[in-house]
Every structure is written in structure tokens, then in C-alpha cells.
TrEMBL record:
Organism of origin: Chelatococcus reniformis
InterPro entries: BPD_transp_1_N (IPR045621), MetI-like (IPR000515), MetI-like_sf (IPR035906)
Main location: membrane
Regions crossing the membrane: 14-32, 103-124, 136-162, 255-280, 286-312
Protein name: Peptide ABC transporter permease
Family: Belongs to the binding-protein-dependent transport system permease family.
PROSITE patterns listed in its UniProt record: ABC_TM1 (PS50928)
Record membrane topology: Multi-pass membrane protein
Coiled coil: none
Length: 317
């Protein structure tokens, strides 16, 4: 259980996220207004009269001042009403609810792969600094950082999907209907996302562990007769847990952004594809709704990291 002081700290940080949400949505709302062209003219269609265009503006509140439009949108968004698509007429919240599980599955699988591969590589490199194993791990990490996600995604499709026919090349399956099929469809996109994550986790963990294992405290533990493996698992990893948590939270946020490209390669109906199609078709309510939802997800990830910081290191306030 968290102490009353820790709960107050977490509560204060939750309040601090409100300006972040407001500022993020305000910037996106403002940038969309700078897009050239008149959305009312587009919606009215060809050969529309001035009267019809004026009716469209009034119908969607496009004739209101910018701050009034933003205030009304934000007030409705807080209540769960993210407006409707200008093109399909579908509620934006419904579109997000349909697409977000696909994105979430890819990100969770990608993050899991990055940790399952990156952590052992980082530990192996740190346990033998300067050895051939350390050099191999760092080379792999450098390669993972250098390879673009979209290029790796296309290679995975060409080899595992089109060449070997082991995994599907495109599309997705709802996890609730077919968990196995959903995981098979998400595996290649997750690997494409995880490549940079493996490199980041292994490099950061290796650097932190080498610093800890070469400290005076660890040399004292060696002098007391503790085995290297005992020191590594009971003292080394415990001391780098906060740094590792920071890497994980940043990596999760980065993967959310990278899904825009990866989902396009694998034709996955996720949040990335939703916002790209909306931007191309100038469907502003969908763009604003997706950005609002993604900002909330990022804020939730950061809040979770703050809570875990307090659990892992009581000195953090």
C-alpha cells in the first residue's frame, strides 16, 4: 500500500497532466485550422450554392470563432462525445473503440518482444564488458537502431508471409473472436516495432549495469565473498530498475507513434491508419478525437511509471 504522502504526490501529478492534455489538443485543433481550403465547400460538394455552404458551416459550427469551437469541442470530449466523422457520420468514439484494440495488441506484443530479447542481451553484455559477447550485443543494438521500422516490416512481409507463407501479410483479427489468429496477424508488425526497442533496452541496461557493477559498493560485496551471479541479480538489477522503467515508458510512447507507419505496411485497421485516412480526407473531428485518445494513453503510461517509481524507490517524491 502507498503511504498518504505518496498518494498525494500521485494525485498532484494527475492534476499536472490536465494542462498537458489541454495544450496538446489546443495545438492540434489550431494546426488543423491552418490547413488550406474550406471544409464546408468540400462537404457541400460540387456546384453547391453559397446558401448551402453557409448551412454546412452553421451545421458544424464552422462559422463560430476559433476559441468557441475549441471550447465546445473540449467540453464535449470531456463528457465522452468526440463528435462524428464528417464523411461517414460514424461517432468518432465508435471508430476509436474499433481500431484501438488492434494498435494496443501490436504495441503490447512489440514491447514484450523488446523486453524479452533486450534484457537478456543487456545482462549478457554487462556481465562481460569488453568481451566479444559485449561487442556482438552492441553491434546488434546499433543495427536495430539503424534499421527503419517500415523497411524491416517490408522485409518481414517478403520473407515470412510471401516467401515462406508462415504468417499473414496483412489485416487483423479481433482478439475476442480468435485470440490465436489475432496473435498471428500481430506478430510481424510487433517484430518490426520491437527492433529499435531491443536495441534501446539492451544498450541502456548494459550501460547502467556496467556502472553499478564497477561501483565501490559492488567491489565491497565481492570482497565479502558474494558470487557474481548473486551480485548481478540481487543488487545490480535492483539498482537499475528505475532506469529500466524509464526506458520502458519512453519506448511504449515511441511505439505508439511508430504504429502509423507499421500499420500502413501491414494494412492493419488501427489508430495509425484511422488518423492518416482522416487527415488525407480532411475529416477533422476524427483527427482531433484520435489525438485526444492518444494523448490520454500517453498520460496514463507516464502516470503508471510515476506510481511504479514510488514503489521501486521510496526516495522518489
Amino acid at each position: 500500500m502507498l503511504s498518504a504522502t505518496k498518494r498525494r504526490i500521485i494525485g498532484r501529478r494527475m492534476l499536472q497532466t490536465i494542462p498537458v492534455i489541454v495544450l496538446s489538443t489546443f495545438i492540434v485543433f489550431g494546426l488543423l485550422k491552418l490547413v488550406p481550403g474550406d471544409i464546408a465547400v468540400t462537404l457541400a460538394g460540387e456546384n453547391a450554392t453559397d446558401q448551402r455552404i453557409a448551412e454546412i458551416r452553421q451545421m458544424y459550427g464552422l462559422d463560430q470563432p476559433f476559441l468557441v469551437q475549441y471550447g465546445e469541442w473540449l467540453w464535449k470530449a470531456v463528457q465522452g462525445d468526440l463528435s462524428k466523422s464528417l464523411l461517414s457520420g460514424e461517432a468518432v468514439l465508435t471508430s476509436i473503440a474499433r481500431c484501438f484494440p488492434n494498435t494496443l495488441l501490436i504495441v503490447v506484443m512489440g514491447l514484450s518482444i523488446a523486453l524479452m530479447v533486450g534484457i537478456p542481451l543487456g545482462i549478457a553484455a554487462a556481465s562481460r564488458p569488453g568481451s566479444w559477447l559485449d561487442g556482438l550485443v552492441m553491434s546488434i543494438a546499433s543495427l536495430g537502431v539503424a534499421i527503419p521500422n517500415f523497411w524491416l516490416a517490408m522485409l518481414l512481409v517478403a520473407f515470412f508471409a510471401l516467401g515462406l507463407n508462415w504468417l499473414p501479410a496483412t489485416g487483423s483479427v479481433p482478439f475476442g473472436e480468435d485470440p490465436g489468429g489475432a496473435l498471428r496477424h500481430a506478430l510481424l508488425p510487433a517484430i518490426a516495432l520491437a527492433s529499435g526497442g531491443v536495441a534501446e533496452v539492451s544498450r541502456q541496461l548494459r550501460s547502467s549495469l556496467v556502472e553499478i557493477l564497477s561501483s565501490q559498493q559492488v567491489r565491497t560485496l565481492h570482497a565479502k565473498g558474494l558470487s557474481p551471479s548473486n551480485i548481478l541479480w540481487r543488487h545490480g538489477l535492483k539498482n537499475v530498475s528505475v532506469n529500466l522503467l524509464t526506458v520502458i515508458s519512453l519506448l511504449a510512447n515511441r511505439m505508439l507513434a511508430a504504429t502509423v507507419v507499421v500499420e500502413a505496411v501491414f494494412a492493419i485497421p488501427g489508430m495509425g491508419g484511422l488518423i492518416v485516412n482522416a487527415a488525407i480526407n480532411r475529416d477533422f473531428p476524427v483527427v482531433q478525437g484520435v489525438v485526444f485518445a492518444m494523448v490520454l494513453v500517453v498520460v496514463l503510461i507516464n502516470l503508471t511509471a510515476d506510481v511504479l517509481y514510488s514503489v521501486l524507490d521510496p526516495r522518489i517524491s
